[in-house]
Amino acid sequence: MTAAFDGTTSPADIPGSPLHAAFQQPLMLGLFLPIQNGGWSISTLPRGTDWRFDYNARLTQKAEALGFDLVFGLAQWLGKNGHGGALKYREQSLDAFIATSALAAITERILLISTVHALYGPWHPLHLAKFGATLDHISGGRWGINLVTGHVASEWAMFGQPMIEHDERYVRAAEFVGVLDTLWRSDANQHIRTKHWQLNDAFVSPRPRFHRPVLVNATGSAAGIDYAVRHSDLIFITSPAGAAFDDAIAALPAHTATIRESAQRVNRRVRTLINPTIVCRPTEREAREYHDAIVAHADEGALDGFVGMHGKSDAKAWAQHKREQRILGGNLHLIGSPERIVEQLLALKRAGCDGVQLTFFDFEPDLAYFGDAVLPLLVEAGLRIPASAHQPLLHTTS
Questions:
Q1: Minimum mean pLDDT among 121-135, 192-206, 212-226, 381-395: which range?
Q2: With respect to CATH, is domain 11-389 assigned 3.20.20.30?
Q3: How far apart are CA 304 and CA 281, in angstroms?
Q4: pTM of the model
Q5: Closest C-alpha to 33, from 93, 64, 92, 73
Q6: What is the pLDDT of residues 243-254, one digit of tens each?
Q7: Is the preceding peptide bond at 206 cis, omega within 30 degrees of 0?
C-alpha cells in the first residue's frame, strides 16, 4: 500500500484526550522551554535562565501547576561557539526530542511537544513511529511531534546532505508523516511503498491511544501552510510584519484567515499558536525599563551571528523581523503592566490566534509573575478556564 495521512480523525476529536481538553480553552497557553543557552534573548543582562534539564523540568512543572496546556522544545544544530559573541549564544543545547520526552515522567496533564528535523540524516519513519507510540504510551497520550523540515544549509551540511529545495521539503515531509500515520493506525503488518521509503511487514506497538500522537508544524510559507493544514493539529505561526505589537496585530487577521480557509478547503480544523515574548511588570514604566535594560545589554557579536545565519535561510517566516527585535527575541513582543498584557492577548485572540507559546527573558521569576499577576486577569477576561474546572487526566501507562 501507499502511505497517506488520514485527516478525518485527530486526537482533538476524541473526548478524554489531552489535546481535546486543551482545545476547550478559549486561548491555549504554551511555554517555549529555554533548552539552549541564552534562551530567546541575545542579551548579557544578568538572569537565571538556564538550558539545563533540571531548570527546564522546574519550569514545566510550574507551567503545569498554573494550568498551561503544553510545552515545546527548540531543535537546532550549531557548531562550536553557537552564534558567537560573549554568550556563545546557543552553543549549549539539549536535544528537544529527548529532553521534552523525558518530562513525561515528572508531569501528569501538560502536553509535551518534541521538535524533530525529520528529514535530516538517519531518521527513518519506522523508528519515529515506534518511538512516538512508546512515548504516547508512557505519557498517556500527551506526547506530540513538531515536525520541521530544516531551512539552514549549514545544518544539512552537518549531516553530509545538500539542502532540499523549500517546497520539495514539504512534499517529503508529507510522505514521511503519511508513513507515520499509517503505522500508528494499523493493527496489522504493513507493506508500504512511497517514493523514498519501502517498508516490508512493518508493525508498531503499542498503538497510540487516541489514533495517533499530536502533530504540529511551524511555518509561514504557502507550501508550508498547505502541508500544515493537511497534516497538523496545531500550526505554529509567525507574525508577517515583525515583532512590534502594533505591526503584528494589523497583519495577523489576514494571515490567520488564510490558514483557516486553507484548512476548510480540505475539511479540517486546525489551531494556531504564536510566540510572544512577555515583558511584564506592575506598571508600564517598569516594564519598559526592564525591556530597555535587556536591549541595552545586547551581545552584538552573537546578534551578528544569529542575524547572519537567518539571512542565509530560505524560510519565509521571520523575514520582516528587524535586527534590534532579535535582542529580546520571540516572534512578537508584549510589553507592559498585567492589564496591558491581557489587552494584547485579547487582541491576538481577536486576530485569529488560538493560543500563545510564551517565552520570557528571565524564565523562572517572569513565569511566576505571569502566573500571579496576569493569569487571574486572563480568567476574568474569559480567555482561560481555570484548570480545576477540567476533569483531571489520569497519568497511567496501562
A1: 381-395
A2: yes
A3: 29
A4: 0.94
A5: 73
A6: 999 999 999 999
A7: yes
